[in-house]
């Protein structure tokens, strides 16, 4: 009898990823059911907030929990046990609730009407107010509900993270990363708000300001802290954590630069990101900074007139997009994404003390997070 062939690595990655997703969904469902029962003792209206959060979470890609998981697998240098999968899944569920809180608040700050191809939470609440004929401003009501729901998500994330099982020293190390993540993303959010208002004076120029926002708003809670969290929980030492950090900064920065491109050259149906959203919101991205630096006088006038104008029509937004392409800004940002992705791959390959299974999982995630070849860039 011929011996069975070993499971192909790609198939094993897929199996473990599916197991993680299943456990995160089960953990999240159970945790939110408990919170719904708790709020139900207050009022049925309070309990309905959990339903809103469940609806908001639908369609999430679980990118951050996946980075956490594969960072943990890389630190283990072997397949995780059922108990280790459970610990990483619970930590992933906590991370995803931090993500939900950040998005709920971010949509309010940016006046974003759409999230994941659906009305943003503050818009949904506003429409509920209008449909029910409630008193007061429907818009202000929607904003208030979204803020409260984001606060609840952040609170519940902390409660879930506080109950992560495992050896005390490893849990404490993972918790320290979790706490750093929350501080950094909120600080990055503040820098984003400040930059939008033209008040980020310590940055040398607009592009460096945008990169600083990426470094402290996107990188920590998208890649850096999640991957360090999982690795720390699974016993990684400082050299492994530092190697993962260097990789994460490259991948996390590339991820956000790619996300900036999606508003110009992405597929709205595929991404759920409204085309032109960054233009009408006036997002001060690296892409915009490079466009401004390269534009002629006519282009500068166009940018001044359209960027940040919530009432800008489709033709005006399209003209800005054409300018971004014509100035070479889109191509240069896409080239930076590719360069950072390549640098990240090199760092991951050179990192010592990491298991091959986890390394493969991290690289697969990085490819997904930094792909620009499928865009019209």
UniProtKB/TrEMBL annotation:
Tell me which Gene3D superfamilies the record gives. Farnesyl Diphosphate Synthase (1.10.600.10)
According to the entry, what is the taxonomic lineage of the organism?
Bacteria, Bacillati, Actinomycetota, Actinomycetes, Micrococcales
| Pfam families per the UniProt record, alphabetical | polyprenyl_synt
Q: Which PANTHER family match?
A: FARNESYL PYROPHOSPHATE SYNTHASE, FARNESYL-PYROPHOSPHATE SYNTHETASE
**InterPro entries assigned to the protein according to its UniProt record, in alphabetical order:** FPS1-like (IPR039702), Isoprenoid_synthase_dom_sf (IPR008949), Polyprenyl_synt (IPR000092), Polyprenyl_synt_CS (IPR033749)
User: What species is given as this protein's source?
Assistant: Brachybacterium paraconglomeratum
Q: What keywords appear on the UniProt entry?
A: Magnesium, Metal-binding, Transferase
- Can you name this protein? Polyprenyl synthetase family protein
Q: Per its UniProt entry, which superkingdom is the organism in? A: Bacteria
Task: Please state which protein family the record places this protein in.
Answer: Belongs to the FPP/GGPP synthase family.
Which GO molecular function entries does the Swiss-Prot or TrEMBL record give?
Answer: (2E,6E)-farnesyl diphosphate synthase activity; dimethylallyltranstransferase activity; metal ion binding
- Cofactor(s), by name: Mg(2+)
Would the keyword Metal-binding turn up in this protein's UniProt record? yes
What processes in GO biological process is this protein linked to?
farnesyl diphosphate biosynthetic process
Give a GO cellular-component term.
cytoplasm
């Amino acid at each position: 009898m011929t011996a069975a062939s070993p499971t192909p690595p790609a198939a094993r990655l897929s199996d473990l990823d599916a197991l993680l997703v299943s456990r995160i969904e089960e953990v999240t469902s159970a945790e939110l059911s408990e919170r719904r029962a708790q709020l139900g003792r207050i009022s049925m209206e309070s309990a309905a907030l959990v339903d809103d959060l469940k609806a908001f979470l639908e369609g999430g890609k679980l990118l951050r929990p996946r980075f956490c998981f594969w960072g943990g697998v890389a630190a283990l240098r072997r397949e995780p046990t059922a108990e280790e999968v459970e610990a990483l899944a619970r930590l992933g569920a906590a991370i995803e609730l931090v993500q939900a809180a950040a998005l709920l608040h971010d949509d309010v700050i940016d006046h974003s009407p759409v999230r994941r191809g659906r009305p943003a939470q503050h818009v949904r609440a506003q429409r509920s107010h209008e449909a029910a004929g409630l008193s007061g401003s429907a818009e202000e009501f929607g904003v208030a509900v979204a803020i409260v729901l984001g606060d609840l998500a952040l609170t519940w994330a902390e409660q879930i993270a506080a109950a992560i099982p495992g050896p005390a020293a490893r849990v404490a190390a993972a918790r320290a990363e979790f706490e750093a993540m929350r501080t950094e993303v909120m600080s990055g959010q503040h820098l984003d708000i400040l930059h939008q208002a033209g008040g980020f004076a310590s940055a040398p120029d607009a592009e460096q300001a945008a990169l600083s926002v990426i470094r402290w708003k996107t990188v920590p809670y998208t890649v850096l802290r999640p991957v360090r969290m999982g690795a720390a929980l699974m016993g990684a030492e400082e050299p492994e954590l530092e190697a993962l950090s260097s990789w994460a900064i490259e991948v996390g920065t590339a991820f956000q630069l790619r996300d900036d491109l999606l508003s110009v050259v992405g597929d709205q149906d595929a991404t759920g990101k409204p085309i032109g959203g960054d233009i009408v919101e006036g997002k001060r991205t690296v892409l915009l900074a490079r466009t401004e630096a390269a534009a002629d006088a006519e282009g500068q006038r166009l940018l001044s007139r359209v960027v940040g104008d919530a009432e800008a029509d489709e033709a005006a937004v399209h003209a800005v997009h054409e300018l971004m392409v014509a100035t070479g800004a889109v191509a240069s940002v896409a080239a930076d994404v590719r360069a950072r992705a390549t640098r990240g791959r090199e760092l991951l390959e050179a990192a010592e003390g990491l298991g091959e299974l986890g390394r493969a999982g991290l690289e697969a995630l990085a490819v997904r997070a930094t792909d620009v070849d499928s865009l019209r860039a």
